[in-house]
Write a structure and sequence with these properties.
mainly alpha, 9 helices, elongated, about 180 residues
Length: about 180
């Protein structure tokens, strides 16, 4: 549901001036800082918290199979939790910092925000390699016969699409997000 809310919010309500000047972009971010902070908190922090419980719960379900995929998946799941929460921490500290630089130079403020954005996307969602590797629990779940087979095969598709995001194409990230929603 968190992914669905984020897709809807960014497609329907977020009117960021992608073609605007650095000043226009920073003014938009400054005027929408609260909304940005709320949606990023939901998208990254709340997601990360729920993900932590999911990682532990899945591991507990699959652990009796004593499978190395289950153990590796849990490691990647925990890493994903840490990366997702770290990205929201960067966003919540970085945006006010960049906005404060506007008084000195809107161009420098925007360049700072671009750098922070790259870090946020790198850790939290622009590349889903760790999220895809976390789906290694799917082969373990197939072996353990814990969940319906179709769900485990869907997990494999999700994992492959996440790993595929190492190729820089937004459609791969969107496929990963949509298959995770499903």
């Amino acid at each position: 549901m968190i992914y669905a809310v984020a897709f809807i919010y960014f497609d329907a309500f977020w009117t960021y001036p992608f073609e605007g000047s650095p000043l226009e972009k920073m003014v938009y971010l400054a005027e929408n800082q609260f909304a940005f902070s709320v949606i990023y908190f939901l998208l990254y922090a709340v997601f990360g918290i729920f993900l932590a419980f999911l990682v532990v719960g899945l591991y507990e379900q699959i652990r009796p199979a004593n499978d190395e995929f289950a153990e590796a998946a849990s490691v990647f799941g925990i890493a994903r939790v840490a990366l997702v929460i770290a990205s929201v921490m960067l966003a919540h500290v970085g945006l006010p910092y960049a906005i404060d630089l506007m008084d000195l130079s809107p161009e420098d403020a925007f360049e700072m925000w671009r750098l922070i954005s790259v870090l946020i996307e790198s850790l939290g969602g622009g590349n889903e390699l760790v999220g895809g590797l976390w789906m290694l629990f799917s082969p373990a779940a197939l072996k353990a016969k814990v969940f319906p087979q179709w769900l485990n095969y869907l997990g494999l598709i999700v994992g492959i699409s996440g790993i595929a995001t190492i190729y820089p194409d937004d459609v791969l990230t969107e496929i990963f997000g949509i298959t995770q929603i499903i």
